[in-house]
């Protein structure tokens, strides 16, 4: 979430700005040294002397009003420049171990930065400050590189430490064999995709929906001209009440009778990321998973871990981080996922890194990825982002195994690869290219809206090779109807492709549900019918993108924009449509040419 993931970095920057301004008379002569990564001892001594007395001078500084204004007015470019100057100072503050002053300054910023609720600010500082300080000290990236990652100030490809390559086995790539439609009488499978449930156990009907915090609908009484939180949920910055999530799941049990198995791609806890503990996360995970066990006693869930399962949110330490571990989470996931139907032989892999592989049906292998080890929100990757736990290499090795043994593969994960750090994203794209005959489907979540992305050949950029489906969220967060998706997949028979043949998206109309005080569901759309597709193969989706591109302001692109927001009314003008089309064409991050073919006007 953009708001929270940048918050602590802003606080650190602002804190050090206060220190620098207060100490300007002492530090003016050594500023050039501070801009380099390693200061000399005398400069460190001077800074230490300055910081030790800054509390007294803080409120009396002539620059405090300017700082207060700048914290509220900074745009992205200014923040990047600010970051470049201040990160060296943060390193020195940590080096001289003046943590008391540092924390006091953070509290000051929380009071002054009025756009962030004070309790949210304090909570975020408490949850993230130790990790961020450790990352700044231990990261091999220079100051500019840290700022480039934290604020997207520069291309990641400009920093050698962020570049790495996965090893593709030295075996010739087979001739591409695009999937062919099965006969009408061929067996089919039905797949349910659930993602981003985000249950808020503290949801309170009638409470304030516009509370100024990252998560609302939890407390307070709305004013005279305000509308309180709806009983079944709210379009504002609110997650889903438990009873609504339960109603959605019960509806699936009652109506979707033919489900064969379920892909379940993470994010169970709510968005109160400034105020979460390990016990909070475990309560959410265990409670929701137990509900699934109860409602779907004879179904197998193939699960992937989301970024919100961790505490703090997004923070998944890699093996190079000794001060923190995530075994508490992986042990809980292993227990719950096996209760939800996974084979017990997946436990060791889950305990190692919350990724695993298993057989779904004869000849169909599932690879579940922990995409938090590629996510740019996982600040621990700032220390070392080179294929954490060698997960991507592990995936490539299993894809090679599947190719050698004639298996098809479905890949699931939480973050789509387009939201990963660039090196991971491009290496993943390379693997999809190499194993295009083997990969029959990719399924992700995280973005909450309804999307897909098309992968193209790395040599012939017009030839599509794969499709990633990014499923709708169950939560309403933010301004969305709850939703889920049902796929029809080529079933088991000799020569099956196991490719998705169609999908249908179901939404709960929140407005109608709150008015009628009962859940109202609609089949939102059927992909082949709504988008006039012959099949759901890469060529079909690529040709669909061409149609959209040739008529961005036409009715079909309007429909895509509507379904993207799960049919909750919102305007999408030409620029909005163009940006959405670019997302659908961008399967890897920091691809400068993915959208070149889209008309600029």
From TrEMBL:
Alphabetical keyword list: Disulfide bond, Glycoprotein, Glycosidase, Hydrolase, Metal-binding, Secreted, Signal, Zinc
Record-annotated Saposin B-type domain positions: 76-157
Record has Magnesium as a keyword: no
Domain of life, source organism: Eukaryota
PROSITE patterns the record matches: SAP_B (PS50015)
Single GO molecular function: hydrolase activity, acting on glycosyl bonds
Any GO CC annotation of this UniProt entry: extracellular space
Cofactor binding note of this UniProt entry: Binds 2 Zn(2+) ions per subunit.
Catalysis performed (reactions): a sphingomyelin + H2O = phosphocholine + an N-acylsphing-4-enine + H(+)
Cofactors: Zn(2+)
Compartments in which it is found: Secreted
Residues binding Zn(2+) 1: 196, 198, 267, 448
Binding site for Zn(2+) 2: 267, 307, 414, 446
Gene Ontology biological process terms in this record: ceramide biosynthetic process; sphingomyelin catabolic process
Pfam families linked: Metallophos
Function: Converts sphingomyelin to ceramide.
Family recorded in the similarity comment: Belongs to the acid sphingomyelinase family.
The name this protein goes by in its record: Sphingomyelin phosphodiesterase
Organism for this UniProt entry: Adineta ricciae (Rotifer)
